[in-house]
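User: Here's a structure from my thesis project, written as structure tokens. My advisor, Dr. K., wants to see whether a designed sequence matches the one we expressed. Can you design one independently, without my sequence as a hint?
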């Protein structure tokens, strides 16, 4: 990934592989959103909320606990997030 490389130039255009990867990434994201919409259309909002009620507060812990890991790698070493 160019944004993590300290010597990468911002002026150079993305390579063919990077452009292809971006297209694939967007297609996967779009298909996930479509499938999420199909889920709501088939099950209905009441059933989806009922399933979330069964899961309880555990889903909140999972969602809140997931962002710190990728964010910790972006912190400088002064804050204790050094590379392994």
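Assistant: Designed independently from the structure alone:
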């Amino acid at each position: 990934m160019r944004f993590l490389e300290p010597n990468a130039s911002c002026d150079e255009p993305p390579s063919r592989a990077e452009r292809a990867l971006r297209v694939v990434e967007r297609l996967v994201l779009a298909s996930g959103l479509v499938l999420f919409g199909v889920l709501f259309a088939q099950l209905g909002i009441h059933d989806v909320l009922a399933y979330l009620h069964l899961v309880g507060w555990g889903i909140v812990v999972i969602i809140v606990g997931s962002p710190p890991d990728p964010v910790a790698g972006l912190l400088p070493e002064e804050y204790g997030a050094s590379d392994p």
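When you compare it with your expressed construct, this may help: Residues 44-84 form one domain.
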